[in-house]
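User: I'm writing a tutorial on reading structure tokens. Could you give me a worked example: one chain, its sequence, then its tokens, then a sentence or two explaining what the tokens reveal?
Assistant: Sure. Here is the example chain.
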Amino acid sequence: MTELSGLLLKKLTKDRRYEIAEYISNHPKEFEKVLSRAFSDNSELKKPLLDIVDLLNGVQMIQVIEQAVLDVDVLTRRRGLQAAYRTRVDSLNIHVAEILSNIEEAFEVRKWAIHILASTDPEYYSGQIVKIARNNSEDANIRKEAIFALTQIVNDKTLGTLCTLLGDSNVEIRQSGAWALSNIGSPDSISCLLAALDDDDEIVRDWAIRGLRDMDDARALQGLADAIHTSPPEEQERMTRLVIERKSEVILRAVVELLGSPDIRVRRTAAWALGVSPYPPAVPSLKELLDDEDEEVRDYARIALIRTGGFDSTDLQL
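And here are its predicted structure tokens:
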């Protein structure tokens, strides 16, 4: 056993990790022998080498990561890919792409392969990632990881792919696609997010609402306002709760219209919302609700009027 092997097999404290990394830097030939031995069989040296890999110099770090990525053990491959992702090593991308292409490979391994390629060379590997995201025969979990990665590769092709996925038969994929578009926030996705407001799944609709709400785009906000106006009462409630903090003139006008809804729950939510985001033009409509048949509607209307600033709370008996 070499001196380095003995050091690696001892309990690795924080200070000892730094000491071993310095020792390796000063003894490169011994390190190469230990490295070769560690990954030539099921050696106990693999784990400690991966535990200190981030502390090694560039060449030695890459040597360890390369051995780990090509190892026969799944856990070792996963740890090697995690290290490559942390350190943004891109010299192994050809091997990483091969790992990603292997549908028999473990999910955790392929997941890290996706994120390495997306973060180190997104333009070159975007096609491979898009293909996985769109492939219905792939496992849903790996498709969702590909969708997540596409949020880091924003171009016409990836936006088109994410919009297409909003029509996928798998609801989890539609949810992930809506989430991704919501996070990207590109005006080019407005049309498909507006279409997603009619999805059967509540989570898809919620992400579509959030995505449109957070865009600084008049067309997106007007589309939301129109959807609020035409949606059934239950959906009007949900949409109002999700959009009210946007404090957009277009949205606030749509909420004011809901004050006249025949549905009690919608009127409650609209009055509550105008208390959260006071809007002076709503005062006349709010005053009409002071005589509403529902007590909660009346209370929310009073609060909204007070917060609007046009009424003294002592004149509105709470």
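What the tokens reveal: The longest helix spans residues 74-87. DSSP finds 20 helices and no strands in the chain.
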